[in-house]
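Predicting holo structure, (2R)-2,3-dihydroxypropyl phosphate bound.
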Amino acid sequence: AKDWFTERQKLQKQMENEPLFGEFKGKNVLVVQAEAFQTFVIGQSIGGKEITPNLNKLIGQSIYFPNFYHQTAQGRTSDADFLTSCSMHPMPTGSVFIRFASNSFDCAPSILKSQGYDTTIHHAYDGSFWNRNNMYHNMNYDRFYTIKDYTIDEPIGWSLGDQSFFKQTVEQIEERNITPFYAMAITLSSHHPFKLPYSNQELNVGELQGTILGDYVQAAHYVDSAVGALVADLKDDGLWDNTILMFYGDHDNSVYDWSLYERLFGNPVSDLDKDRIVRQVPFFIHLPHDEHAGVVDKAVGQMDTTPTMMHLLGIPTDHRYLMGISMLSEAKKSVVFRNGGFTDGQVYFVPSADGVIANGTCYSLSADGAETTGTAACAAGAESAKNDLSVSDRVIENDLIAKFRKEDAAQ
Ligand code: GP9
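Done. Tokens:
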């Protein structure tokens, strides 16, 4: 496993000579992890209205990755947090937050704290859920703001509506008055089963009315309006121009009735589309100035988030134990899913239930679409995906990063 990381660290070194490395040194970072927020709602309209008008507008002002994939497994929201913050795969069963909360990892808050950042995490729910209290302590956050720190003045779903959640989160950050800050905000209003109060249902979802996908679309629209209000708040408070804002979805919505999606899109959904719809969540980076804004089509995944942040902030990662690579780097790598599937932007592999590579489905991707091809075209990538997952599992199960660090210190 150590050799695997030595090779990965060589690829991570590459970003130090690439454009944008350190261009935003010392800037604040605000990360928004949005509950069950998927890519298919971006740019989509229903009843003549955009589902996500604010995020659609943000595309033109951000670096936007339409081919960003979540890589979560049974640990759902906690897996997304672990993948993006600590740049390792989730476990095949359970949640790393619950099973391995005292192990050593190189997570974003501890890296940034070592660089003088104030580090906070904000989630308006019970601090013990997903064992967050323990895991966040291990991740070296200065403070975890839980439901106890919020006034429930907009009750929605499990707790507080995202609009008020964002507003109070910005107030909490401002009250600390410590810069630079790294803050992560985890939303909740779009949690399954997506039932918003009537007054928050602003869209006319037509024939999806009364269906779970109709409710999901209403919830996504509400989250989008909360993001619009957050952006306005950051601008009003003078934070917009000195803060990197990252926004991404944590995992899919668990709605697998494809006839509902066909009604929404107005066309049939292929098997490949089904797999991609379930795995694609949007990823936005808004930088303190807009000159690098654009759509980047490359295939990237949640575990690339912390390396990307370090790239922008100019913090080397070539001595860290991170499995991802900056999304802004030219270094090549594929996005590996917990089920053994992967994509590198050229091919997309969907494994079979028995895990035998030859029994899986390999698609070759092109600008015009996708077609199935022999599994030989995916075989090397699928072997490498298996190996990556096994390295990650061994490192986590045996707390190997602690051992690697000792070895590094002795050298
Ligand atoms: C609860 C929230 C939801 O705190 O993070 O987690 P999920 O059920 O989506 O994994």
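The chain has a mean pLDDT of 97.
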